[in-house]
Design brief:
Layout: E1 20-24, H1 28-40, E2 44-48, H2 51-57, E3 65-69, H3 77-87, E4 91-96, H4 101-109, E5 114-117, H5 122-135, E6 156-159, E7 162-165, E8 170-172, H6 183-194, E9 199-201, H7 202-209, H8 217-232, E10 242-245, E11 249-252, E12 257-258
Parallel strand pairs: 1-2, 1-3, 3-4, 4-5
Antiparallel strand pairs: 6-7, 6-12, 7-8, 9-11, 10-11
Helix pairs in contact: 6-8, 7-8
Length: about 260
């Protein structure tokens, strides 16, 4: 059960929502420092010392973003992140002292939104947090609809047998079933749908989805494209929609159109 994170204000007569962040870190000093810094910068912050405490916390508290230490006693952060991703579409940032490419790649394959190498500067963490939160959709399962009385048109894009709800961040197949798609996969799809039939370099895609600028971003893009292909292509090895241009990048090959046109 989720308890919405409400912060009472008088702005426009509507109750405002502050982003809530969970910091899962087994080092008490770092955990407290991160919580204090993020709190001072306008976020509601919850903390947990290990994965077990996080799982218990998640039964009663809603949150928008989790910052997970990878190397923790007991269940590690990668396993915890995989479980969190299966429960709801909150953002995930991994932190690891190892800093190896394999840690980063595994984290991104599990649906992480960003990755930090410890020790990190708190200012850098704050920048990563803001970037991830800007890309997150409204968490309708966690947050109440404060303006339910105001109707709004859904933005829908159709390609092949699929219908993409850009506002609800959902993809429906030709048989009416929802595709099991992570936030990172949808981010990449949304970039391509906004720029159909155009060559997009890996650098351009990285910038569009807010990946950190480092040499591993290209690999991270390739991983997300590979996962996306498995969801939307009948034959991922011979893609109909998402084609590779060797040495250049990718092209989403279709004329995407708004539903109902």
């Amino acid at each position: 059960m989720f308890i919405p994170n409400l912060v009472s204000t008088e702005s426009g007569g509507l109750t405002q929502l502050r982003a809530r962040i969970v910091v899962v870190e087994d080092e008490p000093d770092l955990r407290d420092a991160v919580a204090e810094y993020l709190g001072a910068n306008g976020y509601d912050v919850l903390t947990a010392e290990n994965a077990a405490a996080m799982r218990e916390l998640a039964t009663t508290e809603a949150f928008d973003l989790a910052i997970l230490d990878i190397a923790m006693p007991g269940e590690d952060g990668l396993s915890l992140g995989r479980w969190l991703r299966s429960q709801w579409p909150a953002g995930i940032i991994y932190a690891s002292a190892a800093g190896t490419s394999i840690d980063r790649i595994v984290g991104l394959e599990l649906g992480a939104d960003d990755y930090l190498v410890k020790p990190y500067e708190l200012r850098e963490l704050l920048a990563r947090v803001r970037s991830v939160l800007r890309r997150l959709p409204p968490q309708e399962s966690q947050r109440p609809n404060l303006r339910a009385d105001v109707p709004s048109a859904r933005r829908l894009i159709v390609f092949g047998p699929f219908t993409v709800d850009l506002d609800g961040r959902a993809v429906t197949g030709g048989d009416g079933t929802l595709l099991d798609m992570s936030k990172s996969e949808f981010d990449v799809l949304e970039v391509f749908l906004a720029r159909p039939n155009r060559l997009l370099t890996r650098t351009a895609i990285s910038e569009a989805i807010g990946l950190s600028e480092d040499p591993e971003s290209s690999r991270a893009v390739d991983i997300r494209v590979m996962r996306l292909r498995k969801k939307i292509e009948t034959d991922p090895g011979n893609p109909r929609f998402l084609r590779t241009v060797r040495g250049e990048g990718y092209i989403f090959s279709l004329q995407a159109s708004a539903a109902g046109e």
